[in-house]
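hi! just following up on the protien thing from before. the input was this:
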Amino acid sequence: MAVPKKKTSKGKRNQRHATWKGKAVVAAQKALSIGKAVLSGRAQGFVYPVADDDTSED
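and the predicted 3d structure came back as:
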């Protein structure tokens, strides 16, 4: 027979949300760092397609 599950406490919920948001912060910092490296030209091991202005199709 089905039994109702116990309610998750506010502390456990907040802990889970903090972990989830913490991962998002780390991902955002990493993306910003990679973006800055690409724009400054010191990115190594990161493939970034550069548009050539010389090849114009008329």
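Residues 2 and 52 are 65 Å apart (CA to CA).
The chain has a mean pLDDT of 84.
cheers
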